[in-house]
Structures are given as C-alpha cells and as structure tokens.
Amino acid sequence: MFAVLHLADFPLHAVLRTERGAASKPAALFSSTSKKSVVLAANPAARSHGVELGMTAPQAMARCPALLIRSPHPDAEAEARAALLAIGFTLSPSIEDTAPGICIADVHGLDPAKLEPALHRATAELHALGLPVTTGLARTPLLALYAARCSSLNTQPSTLKFRSPVHHVADEKSFLSPLPLSAADPSPELASIFHAWGLRTLGDLHALPRDEIVRRFGAEGLAFWNRANGGTPRPLHPVTPPQTFAAAMELETEIETLEPLLFLLRRFLDRLTLELRASQHVAAELHLTLKLEGDTQHARSFRLPEPTADVEILFRTLHTHLESLSTAASIVALELRLTPARPLVRQQGLFETGLRDPHGFAETLARVSALVGSDRVGTPQLEDTHRPDAVKLIAPLAVVPPPAAAPLHPPLGLALRRFRPPIPVRFGTDDQRSYIWSDTVRGEIAAQNGPYSKSGDWWQSDRAWARQEWDIALADDGGLYRLIQIGDAHFLEGEYD
Amino acid sequence: MSAASETLAKLRRQLAERFPTAPRTVGRALRTDIPAIDNTTGGLPLGAITEIVCAAPSCGSHLLLAQLLTATRATRTRVALIDSADSFDPSSFDEDHLAHLIWVRCASTTQALGAADLLARDANLGLVFLDLRRAPEADLRRIPGPQWYRLQRAVEPTDLALVIETPRASVPSAQVRLVLNTAHSLPALARERPALTLELAPTLQRQRQSAAAAG
Questions:
Q1: Do residues A481 and A472 touch, judged by C-beta distance below 8 A?
Q2: How far apart are CA A224 and CA A190, in angstroms?
Q3: Of B43 and B11, which is predicted with more confidence?
Q4: What is the ipTM of this complex?
Q5: pTM (2 decimals)?
Q6: Considering CB atoms only, which of B66, B101, B115 is closest to A372?
C-alpha cells in the first residue's frame, strides 16, 4: 500500500504559510511582481471572487480588491517541502519526494488498523503547519495520487464527493470509472482524439479493448492505458532523512516587530522538532541568527539545560530572549540551527536533587537576567585572592553537590553587609573621643577593634592594594561597622549584621 | 480568636472543601534550626510570606540568612537571594554554603520586586530571600499594597518559603512577621557564629492562622 500526501497549489500555500492569517484571505500567486505577470495559482477564497488562472494583476485586482498578491519564494517552498517530508517520515521511513507538493510513502509495514488513523493524524498536523494537504491511500502510488488529487477541493470534479481529506481506494474499478480522462494526464493529441470519440471518463476508456488501443496508438496508448488503470506498484526513490537541522529564510518584506518574527520561528521549530523526533534526536543547543538591514547581524546561541525536542520549550527559549531584544535595524533574513544530541535516558536517583523543571528554571533565570543584567545573576564563587570583595558569578549548577564536611573552626562573628561602593566618611577625634561623619551614617565611635593592616598584589604596581581596617561600634545607633582607611581617606565598607 | 479571624478561617475551610485539588502547603514549614523561630512558628511557612523586620542596626539579619543557607545546604535545596541594594558579601560565608545559592544583584527596589515575582513562581527553588533591608524608605512607601498580595498569590501554590527582610513592617500579606530588634555588641564579632545564631531571638509580631490550623 502507498500513501500520497498532496498539496494542490503548493507554491502559493508555501508562501501564505509564512504570514499569520494570510491563508484565510483571497490570495493569488503571480509569476512576478510586475503588472504584466499572470496568476499562476489562486486559493479558494480568491477563486470565489472570480480570480482565474492566467489573469493579469490589474484584472485580478478588479475582481477582488482585497487580493493578496504574492510571488514564488524559493526559501518558503524549501521550508514547506521539508515540512511535508518531515510528516512523511512519521508515516514510513521509505518516502519519495516525487514533485513539489507530492510526497509518496510506502506504508506496507504499517498495521492496516492503524493506517487510516495515522494518515488522518498526519493530514491534521500538516494543516496545523499551514499546508492543507489531501491524502490518498491505494495499492499503487499512482492510484493513491489520483485519490489524493480527487480529495483536493480545488481539483474535485462536481461528480465526485469525497468529504474527507483522506481517501482510501478499496474498490479500484468503481473509484476510477467516474474520473475524467484528464486525471490520467493524456497527451494533447490523445485527449483530442478521445474527446472526438465521445470518451469522457476513465470508465468510458476501460470499456474499449486494450489491444485495440495499443494497435492504434502504440506505446503511448499503452502507457496511457496503464495510467488510466492506476499503474502498478513500483519501488520508490527514497529520501534520506536530514542530518542537519536548520531553517533559513530571506524575507521579501523586512520584519520590524516581534510578532511576525515569532510566527516564522514557530513555523521553523514545528518542522525542525518533527525532523528531530523522526531521527530519534533532541536539541541540545539553538543558534539564532538575525540578519539586519545594512549588512549587520544579531547572533545568539542558547544552550538548553536539558536537551529536548519539545517545541513549546524551544519556542519559549527564543521568545524569552526576543521579547527583550531591540535591534538597530529591521530584519531582512533569519536562520535557526539546532545542535542535535541523543536523548538522555536515565532514571533519576532517589536522593538526587537535580532540577525539577530544568527548562522552567532556565527560563526563569533568562527572565531575571533580562531584568537585572546577565552578569548580575548566578551562583557566587570566591576568587583565589585576599583582595576584598573578589567574587564572581557562575551559572547555577545543574545538580547541587552533597555538602562538604563542617569546617573545623566555625566562622566568627556577624556577616558583613557591604556598601557598594564604600561610603566616604570624615574621621575626627576630640578629647579622646572619635567621630565619623557621612551623609547616611554618623556618630561617636563607642568602641573599636583594630587597626588590622591588609595588603596584596604588591608585586604588580597597577594592582597593588593596601588598607587598614577597624571594626567600630557607634554610640548613637548601636550599629557595628567596618571602617577602612586607604591612603588618607576613610570609608565605611559595610555594616556587620 | 476574633470574629473576623473566625470568619476568615471558615471561608478558607469552605474553599478547601470545594476545591480539594488546589495545591496547598498549609501547615508545612522550612525548619531553620533557630530555636526561637522553630519553637514559636514551627519554621518558615511554605507557600507563604515571612517578613523579617530589622528594627535595629546589626540585629543579625545576615546571621539569620547564614543559618538559612546552612539549613538548606544540608538538604541541597536551592535558594534565591534577591539583593535589592547589592549588599550581600559572599566572602563572609563559608564557600560550600553558597553552592546552592542564586544571587540576584539588583540595582533598585523595583528590579528586586520584579525578580521576586519571577523567582517566587519557580518550582525548583525551596527558599526565596528578598532583602529589602537597605531599600530606600521612599521606595518602600511607594510599593502598592496589591504588589505584596500578588507575591503572596504567586507563592501560594508553590513549595517554597518566601522571606522578605525589611527595615520596618511593610508587607501586609505576610503570614508570619518576626522582628529583630536587638543590636549586637562589638564582642559578638569575636564569638563563634553558631553560638550567636542560637541566641537569635526574634519577636513574633504576627502569625496569621491558616485554614488547616483553624480547622
């Protein structure tokens, strides 16, 4: 058995699926954007307004003023083709990219009971991806193609009523008989001769003796006869599953706002995640490149906390970044590349304290980073120096390590609450009493410890530091502070708290 | 119990009966190993806000933070510290007690509240510590009341404890309010920190009754 996924007016739908809401509006595909160009394809909404193939743009606009005029877009077609094949791979590993908008899958191995539900699912998924395909299922690839074409709304003759987008040809003879002769693609000469004979349907042709057709029309007649009978099963030209997972598009209209960009990225991700799943991979990293007007670009990579092929998680990762992004110029092209990885298959340890929701955690951190700055969020790590306040932030660990043994000598006293930068103070003495003054803290020093001299990096002239420290208690508010002297200047470095 | 508290408890009981599947962390708490807190409130309530009012300078609020870091480190529970005035000093703490900490260094009170709103919803955290101790008085006054209730709503369905440290009572939606009002003296700087921690004696100023407790 063979299944055919068929998309009528493929180039038009390939373009329309890149714009939100365009598929429901009257739209036509023109050979170019000039006035002399003619309609190559029109969607049902445009046809209902009287737009027909071969019309010029002014003629079409006269009939349908709201007509969307689009021209063929090779990138969009490549993207739509890839999406069609990606869904094809969910049906069978042996699929053929027969022509633009036609994908044949060899479904001999599938359980017959599951076949039609699988085809309905594939068709629905393609509809969700903006590709309104019809599907045929039959004994031969050609017959399945006829069935898919007949299910297509645009090509369905009035005598045939296939309501479902999936048509299973069980009785070949009764299926083929009402089909018009044109369904089997006769040459113009044959078509005119048969028309003159009064033959209108394939059933009319089948009523004639095969040998007589061959005797009169030779090899061409035999080939047509075979096509009219639905052909024979043949080996497919199999498509190799993609090894790289990337999508790119040059835009005809520059993108200036977030919404159309997200729409396109969602389309990319829908397709790429299908390909990932079909090849038993997950995404470990995302690489987004936005090419801007003026030959500049914005590139950003996102390492996922846990590799995944979940489209919602991947999309959220991009969304979170893009909603706080402002580019200097409008976007003229975009590229999204996924780094594939094998999925991690392991059971979480009973006492393992990994993240409950790694993607949620990454997203929360990304949002907090967008709020306060990416260099101001993380796990603090002390640097290997005695220089005061030498600390750096690292990315939080995926798994919190077991606690180390308690230190032999526990820390002393209260922790410091730092003033960043230190508060300059004036220091003075009067009759054996000492005072400090600043805008925020002032008063008599009731008690003090120190001074403690500290210095470091003395071997590097540009990094050398030296200071004296006192721990002081103020009489007025009772607070404990660290007073430091650097050169002749005094500062409050923090409050012990 | 006042009439208003009884009515509120009754209303909560009715809601709990009507929506039994709603996540509740009522009655569960994060133990601090500080006797004065654990013995009076049972610890820091999960899914609720605890306000620590630092009414005096050097009252030991970072001592409390150090103890919370120690307690959560033992259970390998992740902690987020939202530092509104960028005053946290990691070198004052044992480095091993920072391995589970996410430090958010904010430049303003507004940033800190925004970060708290995001982190309080994260299922991976066990404790979120919002430090507003050095937030400017004018900023604290400008925080609208609904903002605090929004934080309460954010934290309610989670399993985390949200601790907010303020210079004066400011959080109307806090379930527990503890006041640290004793300044330490200079000799305290020479004493071992665990001994100082055990001596911390915050005053319980508010403990709202939960539906479970009331029932």
A1: yes
A2: 9
A3: B43
A4: 0.85
A5: 0.63
A6: B115
